[in-house]
Amino acid sequence: MDPSSCSPITPTVTQRDQWMVESQVFEIYQLFSSIPQSAQSLMLELQRDNHISYLTKSLSYLPPSFSVLDANRPWLCYWIIHSIALLGESLHYHIQHNAIHFLNRCQDPNGGYAGGPGQMPHLATTYAAVNALITLGGQKAFASINRDKLYGFLRRMKQPNGGFRMHDEGEIDVRACYTAISVASVLNILDDELIQNVGDYILSCQTYEGGIAGEPGAEAHGGYTFCGLAAMVLIGEVNRLDLPRLVDWVVFRQGKECGFQGRTNKLVDGCYSFWQGGAVALLQRLYSVVEEQMAEASQVSSKPDVSEEQKSPYGTSGDATCHFTHGGTDKPGLADFKNSGYNFINEWRERDPLFHSIALQQYILLCSQEQEGGLRDKPGKRRDHYHTCYCLSGLSLCQYSWSKNPDSPPLPKVVLGPYSNLLEPIHPLYNIVLERYHEAHEFFFVES
Fold this sequence. Notes:
The chain is mainly alpha-helical. The protein is built from 19 helices and two strands. The radius of gyration is 23 Å and the shape is globular. InterPro entries: FTB, PGGT1B-like, Prenyltrans, Terpenoid_cyclase/PrenylTrfase.
């Protein structure tokens, strides 16, 4: 058969979409590289005032088109309030009061927070409401959370296989595990009952690629990977995951556009600046465990096969993973989970970031930022509160990725653009501004 007679291969829809996004992104980068340095500085400037204006207006009024998000109103509160806190701005007292009052109306009499007053309590909106209240800060916001009832709601959502349901008769997935564990951890109500078998469920969701899926047998995904990894840190079982494979998967999600994609062969998206960037930030702090697993794998590959009798549920008998004590036992993989979030941020170890932090800042500032305020998924998309929140969260992680301490100011050379771009640092396990996290920790741990 004459090869010249063959028809050309038709590109897939995915390929065409990828080429279009690359073209839009590279056009922006080419423009940036061709203009004078003074103009480049302006393009790299975080439009702080415009972002604050966009966000604060949204707390007072949203157009009718937002009615489709009626069951996500605590999320809107969290995305907006957290973004404002990241920008270092405080809310007026009456706005804080109204937000606390509204979120209290979303609190179900039997525990948990719904998407709106009178709706069904849901783990996702419970996470959003609790994070929003912690970000608002102060005794009034903290005391409004009925921890006893909320604990009962979490117990009702807990499943025998270790997973959680998002709501009554709802789906069971890794997102539910994270939102439940995160809320219980930050409010100091996490206990053995809540963490039982959670590690087993999340472990069953780690895929052959190394990332974590929403449920067993599904595709690895950036959002679920962050959720699964963070939950495993919070319950003290992170060493049970195959961390070297997880590192490989997540770092290769940063593409030529400089931003992160959420899944293999998918388009870049600004929100993964946090979901994937946050997972890398956690792995950066866990790299001693990663190295131990890599060393153990190397040793095992050079040894004869280990018999089934010699194997433990957590690996071979020579497993080099961390062995913590928990509840008087010597079971590998379990830590003192009560203070895992606090210890994680305070046992900070300086290490080079595992991703290209300057490149990600470039994507956020040049491709996701709208000059009039707000941030977006990618060029050609519209700004929204969700992407504003997670682009800014990812930008904060980038800026502090080289810091010796979690709240120490980074050097100017690691902050792309003017130093006025610097945002507030966050706690990477909860995505709460660090200062607000410490205030909440003092209230729920020291005073409880």
